[in-house]
């Protein structure tokens, strides 16, 4: 018996020692190894993206026996017929026996992320000038209201709560970037073409809601950026 059931939820991790992929089985409450397949490259790319990395730099195959359990129990296999049509790994994996005994490992690219010198915000440490060039200031009528991060030449990610109904007039918003001070005259100020809110942010549906999940929004710039 191989295919048992499709999962509703999963979480993906990469082991820091041998880079093997492990996926959390929400139904059984345990971590499983991911059986290797002919679609390893696509699975590795999808897994890295799901974990928030830029991309998969490389992938390899390990022997399940030599890898050891290390808290895992059992395997997932990829349903390759579903893989081209999914955006999340959980939508294309099934519990299996992994008869080959070969499991997938991958190395993800973490470009664009800086490791903090301390693991807490409270009492933290001042950032060095110019070390966070993707950080921007979101200004409403010229006044700073929120921060954001550049994620491409056209998009900035920020929080949905920055845009209550009274603050949704697009032409009054600007994105200020390329400067290290709010008082700088050397920064670049750009208009916003559109705002995309997460559909699951409850306060926009129910004003009395105190639920803060899905507090995220995307801003599309009116003019694409030119990176140097």
From TrEMBL:
> What does the organism's lineage look like at the top?
Eukaryota, Metazoa, Chordata, Craniata, Vertebrata
Under InterPro entries, the record lists: Hepsin-SRCR_dom, Peptidase_S1_PA, Peptidase_S1_PA_chymotrypsin, Peptidase_S1A, SRCR-like_dom_sf, Trypsin_dom, TRYPSIN_HIS
Q: Is Nucleotidyltransferase given among the entry's keywords?
A: no
Say which species the protein is native to. Answer: Notechis scutatus
GO molecular function term, any single one: serine-type exopeptidase activity
User: Keywords, A to Z?
Assistant: Disulfide bond, Glycoprotein, Hydrolase, Protease, Serine protease
**Homology family:** Belongs to the peptidase S1 family. Snake venom subfamily.
Q: Which residues form the Peptidase S1 domain?
A: 121-228
Q: What protein does this entry describe?
A: Serine protease hepsin-like
An example Gene Ontology biological process: proteolysis
- This chain is encoded by the gene named LOC113430619
User: What Gene Ontology cellular-component terms does the record carry?
Assistant: extracellular region; membrane
């Amino acid at each position: 018996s191989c295919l048992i059931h499709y999962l509703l939820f999963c979480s993906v991790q990469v082991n820091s020692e041998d880079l093997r992929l492990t996926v959390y089985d929400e139904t059984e409450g345990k971590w499983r190894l991911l059986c290797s397949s002919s679609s390893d490259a696509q699975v590795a790319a999808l897994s890295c993206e799901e974990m928030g990395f830029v991309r998969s730099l490389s992938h390899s195959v390990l022997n399940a026996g030599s890898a050891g359990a290390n808290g895992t129990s059992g395997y997932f296999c990829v349903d390759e017929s579903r893989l081209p049509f999914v955006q999340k790994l959980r939508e294309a994996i099934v519990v299996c026996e992994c008869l080959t005994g070969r499991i997938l490992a991958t190395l993800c690219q973490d470009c664009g992320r800086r490791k903090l010198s301390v693991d807490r915000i409270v009492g933290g440490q001042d950032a060095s000038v110019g070390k966070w060039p993707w950080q921007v200031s979101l200004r409403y009528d010229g006044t700073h209201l929120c921060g954001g991060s550049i994620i491409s030449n056209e998009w900035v990610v920020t929080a949905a709560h920055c845009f209550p109904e009274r603050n949704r007039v697009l032409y009054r918003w600007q994105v200020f970037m390329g400067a290290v001070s709010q008082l700088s005259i050397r920064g670049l100020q750009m208009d916003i073409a559109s705002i995309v809110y997460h559909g699951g942010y409850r306060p926009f549906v129910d004003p009395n809601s105190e639920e803060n999940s899905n507090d995220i929004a995307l801003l599309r710039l009116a003019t694409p950026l030119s990176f140097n």
